[in-house]
Write a structure and sequence with these properties.
Elements lengths: L2 E6 L2 E9 L4 E4 L7 H14 L5 E5 L3 H12 L5 E3 L11 E5 L2 E5 L1 H7 L3 E9 L3 H12 L3 E11 L8 E7 L1 E3 L1
Parallel strand pairs: 4-5, 4-8, 8-9, 9-10
Antiparallel strand pairs: 1-2, 2-3, 3-11, 6-7
Bound molecules: 1-O-pyrophosphono-5-O-phosphono-alpha-D-ribofuranose and adenine.
EC number: 2.4.2.7
InterPro entries: PRTase-like, PRTase_dom
Protein name: Adenine phosphoribosyltransferase
């Protein structure tokens, strides 16, 4: 598999390149299990983003980043939107678009009410995931005051209001 070498928050990583179609390849970022990279990225992001009241992230790959950000900000909790309702969740809020669903536990929705929120994810591609998270934050009566990610990719999304560390280019052939 082809690899795309990139420095992210001072850490060098080789990102696996996958084909989307004959003309387009994308380099993929997988932070799961990569403590060194997650810690470096979280340190870089807390320098750029004012401490919010609460952090909201998306299952799955946003979770380790949100956990490290919460630790650095000295927070005891952060909130994870799940991809499906779980039996242990209280009455939940959900948002869905183009086959992607995120579900927020009712307890978490109560915690969010009137809070200033940092919405964080590891990666923003089409922007669909981060948009759904923002909508859930709104539904819970809270305000998204910042959005952050490690990487953004592509040009279909406006990144002006997202604090990010690297832009991963699309590879066209
Ligand atoms: O901007 P978008 O085009 O919406 O893409 C970004 C989302 O996609 C990835 O997660 P994925 O849905 O692959 O799930 P995972 O984290 O569970 O692997 C990534 O972690 C973001 O949440
Ligand atoms: N982690 C990731 N890297 C590259 N493209 C993606 N699309 C969705 N998640 C991605």
């Amino acid at each position: 598999m082809a690899l795309f070498t990139m420095e992210i928050a001072g850490v060098s990583r080789q990102l696996p390149v996958i084909s989307v179609n004959d003309q387009l390849q994308i380099a993929t970022l997988n932070i799961l299990g990569d403590c060194e990279l997650v810690e470096a990225c979280a340190r870089a992001l807390v320098e750029k983003v004012t401490r919010p009241d609460l952090i909201v992230t998306a299952e799955t790959k946003g979770i380790p980043l949100a956990a490290e950000l919460a630790r650095l900000y000295g927070m005891s909790h952060f909130i994870v939107a799940r991809k499906e309702h779980k039996p242990y969740m209280q009455t939940s809020l959900s948002q869905e678009a183009e086959g992607l669903t995120y579900v927020l536990d009712g307890q978490d929705a109560k915690r969010l009410k009137e809070k200033h929120v940092l919405v964080v994810d590891d990666f923003v591609g089409t922007g669909r995931a981060i948009q759904l998270l923002e909508q859930l934050v709104r539904d819970a009566g809270a305000k998204t005051t910042a959005k952050a990610s490690i990487a953004v990719q592509g040009s279909s999304v406006q990144y002006d209001d997202i604090t990010y560390l690297v832009h991963i280019p699309l590879i066209r052939s």
